[in-house]
Every structure is written in C-alpha cells, then in structure tokens.
Amino acid sequence: MGNQRQKVLVLYLSNSALDSNVLAWSIYDGTGKEAHTTGDSDVPPYASGLDALKAGWRVIQFPQLIPPYPGDEHSTSFYKHEFIFEQLEASDG
Amino acid sequence: MVDQKYLLNSKQMASFVSAGYLRFDAVVPDTINQAAMREFAAGVRGAPYGTPLGDVYPEESAVGRLLALPEVQGIIQSLVGPHPLFDHHAIHVRQANEAAAQHLHGDAVIDVRTHFDIQLMYFPHAIPLEMGGTLLVPGTHFRRINESDIGRYQNMRGQIPMVCEAGTLLALHHGIWHCGRQNTTGRVRYMFKIRLNPTVRQLRLWNTDDLADPEVERILSKRYPWSEDASARLDIMNRSKLWRFLTGAPAYDTDYWLTRVENTPDQQVEEVTA
C-alpha cells in the first residue's frame, strides 16, 4: 500500500441485497483524520450499500448466507448482513 | 406488600418485554439526588452476591431511601417480585472530556433464560446530550450475544442516548445492548447501577387489570429501526414467548407468528369429517 492509508466502512443492511437499507454503521479511519466512537451519530452515512459504492467506496466483504443451526432457527443474535467497504487515501506518513 | 397503585400496568410490562427497558423520568426526589451525589463521590458499600436486597443498604442511606420509594418498590415488585437478591452494584463514572465511548455490550455473560434479572440505572443529576449518557438500543435484549462481542457496532438506527432530568431511573432487562457514551463536558458524569435477581416465578406480578387491552398486542408487535426485515419477525416471536411466560397464557401470540409454526396437526381426516 506504500504511503496509502485505509479507511474502513462497515454497513449493516436490512437484508442480503447490497441495495437494501442501512440499519447500523461503523467507520474506522486509518488516516487519523476522523475518530469515531460508539453512539456518535444518529444518521447513517449512506441510505444503502449501493449508495456507498456510488460515493466511491470499494466493497471488500459480502457476508455469506449461512442457514441457521438446527434447533436454533428462531433465536436471534448478531447482524447477518455485514458489508465491509474501503477507501485508500494517500498519506505523507 | 406494595400498594397496587404503584405496580406497573400491563401496557408498561408489554413495553418492557418489547423494548427491554422502562424509563421513569425524575421519579427520585432532589433530596435523595443530592445525598446520592455526596455518597457516590465517597463510594457505596455493597454486599456479597446473592444477599437479600433488604439487607444491603442502611435505611438512611441515599440508595436505601431510593429503594424504599413506593414507585421504585412498585417497579421492582412488578418485574422481579418481592424479596429479590442483590447481585452487584457499580457507580459508573465518565470523566470530564472523556472522548471515547465504551464499546457496545450486554452485561455479564450470554444469558438465554426466559426468567430475567433487572438492572436499575439511576441518574442522580441532569444529563444533557453532550454529557452522554448511557446509550441504549431498544429491543435488543433477545439477541444472543456475549458481552462485548458486539463492540464493532458503533451506531444503530433507533439508539437512544439517555438525556434526562436528575432523579431519572431506567429498569433494564439483563440482555439489553448498551454502553456509556462519551462525555464532552467539563463535568464528571455519574450513574449508579444495581442488578437484582428474582426469587419467585415471574408470573403476573404487576397490576393486570388492563391485560386484555388491545394496546398490549400493539406494543408487543413493534418493530425497531435497527432490525433486519427477517429477524424482526423472530424477535416478535421471542417476545410472545416471554409474554406467555409472564402471563401464564400458553396460547398467546402476536400476529400469528408462533401459532403458525406450532401448527402440526395429528388428527386424521376421518376424525375431522365425522
């Protein structure tokens, strides 16, 4: 990556489609320009995963669709539709 | 016994089952809030896990007086019944200008009981948005996660920062996701939390006069903005299971979600047409 730094955007979508709505989000900024923490925003950065693509983010993870464990079909846990995006930014560091 | 007028009603209990918490704004009088601030700065003596709650705090202490308020007695009685056990308590402090929030978490460990503990959160002073306070995500209490495994979730639609007047109380289901938000003011923030374990079966412990109110089912069918399309339905099913447990009504359902998947008839055609 040379003198580039990675910014990571994690979007949790309402279903497995990339163009479905954003329900939750996290941002980690390797350039150090932004510092994000829990509960620092009530408004998602994009309405959908597709909107993040249109804004120049590169998707680097599509979540796999994994069937529920037998006997555990009605329990709920983590978000299932976690999409990870990146941007690379030049750095003088 | 707690006077019935201080018990929760069925709509409040349905809100607890749906959202995983209840909020009581400025329910604690200022004399107790002032005393609590002084005592919290010095520390509050606890007790071993499992001590009967009534044996933990001196009557004249701020926490003792808070727990003796009839409104608070009514909350405790309705949710965990008489004679709960003291699990533990903690004075949570967010220092002035503490920029990083806690990671989102559920307390203790993954806990899949239908029976539930409650945690009372007490905010002895006013909390503006810049001061935090505790961040809650309503409706997350059925999600099976272990403590801070959810720490990567920074923001969720529908999250609620506790902005409140002095003397506000929250009563939380043990499973709800929460964290301490950043405090960008120059003042220290306090929150006192106490966890209580039930010693009786949690069955119709509240004022059930309004149990048949149609508003109850509407509350139990609520969808939360953070929830995925599909798993939101599962959360409603899990609420119905808890409502069955609390009311003793084994056939209760919201929107037919449970009844449909429980329908496995064994009757022969001849028996139906006879």
Give a summary of the structure in a few sentences.
The complex is a heterodimer of chains A (93) and B (274). Chain A is mainly beta and 93 residues long.
Supply database-style keywords.
heterodimer, A: 93 residues, mainly beta, four-stranded antiparallel β-sheet, 4 strands, B: 274 residues, alpha+beta, six-stranded antiparallel β-sheet, three-stranded antiparallel β-sheet, 8 helices, 28% helix
Number of strands of chain B: 10
Calculate the terminal CA-CA distance of chain A, rounded to whole Å.
12 Å
Class inferred from helices and paired strands of chain A: mainly beta
Helix content of chain B: 25-40%
Mean pLDDT across the residues of chain A is 95
Query: What's the overall geometry of chain A?
Result: elongated
Oligomer state of the chains in this structure: heterodimer
In N-to-C order, the SSE pattern of chain B is: HEHEHHEEEEEEEEHHHH
- Poorly predicted runs of 5 or more residues of chain A: none
> What about the largest sheet of chain A?
4 strands, antiparallel
As residue ranges, the low-confidence spans of chain B are none
Reported for the largest beta sheet of chain B, the result is:
6 strands, antiparallel
- Write down the overall geometry of chain B: globular
- Helix and strand content put the structural class of chain B at alpha+beta
Strand line-up in the sheet with most strands of chain B: 1-8-4-10-3-2
Query: What is the CA–CA distance across the termini of chain B?
Result: 54 Å
Rg of chain A, nearest Å: 15 Å
Rounded to an integer in angstroms, the radius of gyration calculated over CA atoms of chain B is 20 Å
What does this structure look like?
The complex is a heterodimer of chains A (93) and B (274). With 93 residues, chain A is mostly beta strands. Chain A contains 1 helix and 4 strands, in the order ββαββ. Chain A has one helix at 49-54, and strands at residues 4-13, 22-29, 58-61, 82-90. A 4-stranded antiparallel beta sheet of chain A has the order 2-1-4-3. The two termini of chain A are 12 Å apart. Helices cover 28% and strands 18% of the residues of chain B. Chain B contains 8 helices and 10 strands. Chain B has helices at residues 10-19, 30-42, 62-68, 70-80, 214-220, 229-247, 257-262, 269-273; strands spanning 21-24, 51-52, 85-94, 118-123, 134-137, 155-156, 160-161, 168-173, 177-180, 189-197. The chains are: A mainly beta (93), B alpha+beta (274). At the A-B interface, strand 1 and strand 2 of A face strand 6 and helix 6 of B. Strand 2 of chain A pairs antiparallel with strand 6 (155-156) of chain B, so a sheet runs across the interface.
